[in-house]
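Blackboard transcription, Thursday session:
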Amino acid sequence: MTEPTGRRERKKAQTRQSLADAALELFLERGYDQVGVKDVADAADVSVTTLFKHFPSKEALVFDQDDDLEAALVAAVRDRTPGQSIPQALREHILLKQTQFAVHTTDPRFADFTRMVQETPALRDYAHRMWTRHEAALARAITEAAGAPEDDISCAALARFALEARGLVLRHAEPNRAADEAFALLEHGWAASRPGS
Amino acid sequence: MTEPTGRRERKKAQTRQSLADAALELFLERGYDQVGVKDVADAADVSVTTLFKHFPSKEALVFDQDDDLEAALVAAVRDRTPGQSIPQALREHILLKQTQFAVHTTDPRFADFTRMVQETPALRDYAHRMWTRHEAALARAITEAAGAPEDDISCAALARFALEARGLVLRHAEPNRAADEAFALLEHGWAASRPGS
DNA sequence: TTCGAAAGTTTAGTCATTGCACTTATTTTG
DNA sequence: CAAAATAAGTGCAATGACTAAACTTTCGAA
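(Written on the board underneath:)
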């Protein structure tokens, strides 16, 4: 009963996939701004209207799998291994997400993809929004995990900084080292702001 | 010779001002998304194309004075009072900018203005971009001031976090306290990452 | 005074995105 | 199984931000 998929839903999923595939191919080939939604729709052999029934915007065509980032983020903080600090847990989670992502896409074009995202303002901003959208939830999780008062600012700050650190890490040649240093800064600042661990 | 302003340039400046004024008034009255660029152009009695000759985008109508944020930011780090830490200098500079801004606008509608910016996604994002645009320059200034190697990640991280802190501070009821806590976190993290002050 | 450049206008167009009315395929239900 | 309900997909027109091109007016400098 986990897949009560009728023919209808299958076709829908297929159309969606065609669109995402066509979009990725065209964008990588010609560049995001050089491709219109019309081109993508044509390549997937559907109408433009249909495209927008599947994806809320042109940018969304690029970031297909938008699953439960938020839940995972909150869980990373709540269920961290005992003794591990919150900044450390976040560092691990963010690096994990990256490698998962890189592995999941078996395409050797993965490097081209990330480069394209970083070099296209519309996409960079969209990706940024996707992350920061969960800032409030992360802040709440941190507040709870730290047993801090409701509106503690350090917790909100840590949430935002940690999410921002991702962008910093992404564009560096050596992600692991970048993450280590950026989160070391947060780690020490956090420990100092919070006398009782 | 500081103002060799001919009639021509005066008229140009006047047109620009009319546009900015009309835009602000209409936006505050009806809300940003409820006003089209056509409405603004009409209210200023110019054509839409003229509007775009003065402002590169609809959002730019709102943030008229975009002077030398970057130079000021870099100077705040380079010329900080001796003995003051870099995070402290940045905290002061950011709070200063805010109050300067608030005073400069004698309008009692100032509160409405900031509320509107925070509540309109397009404007929030634009303001954010205006700040983060100078991240690279700030990072370079910090690197120099700290005597760190060219690509030191802690410096880049501090630059980004400090700029992000502004958004955090802005939405809080008590900006000073928020700034104190957010920058305290950076202060301690920075000191720890940097053995020799 | 004349001539070029700058400000402004009109017009027409691109591009993402939405609303509406319509067809077609697949379920669901009586 | 035969409707009747549901949902995918289509075409078309429109909005709203923005741009390019060709043209007119107005300064300002030579």
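Lecturer's comment: Residues 6-8, 11, 36-38, 48-49, 52, 56-58 of chain A lie near DNA strand C (CB under 10 Å from a C1').
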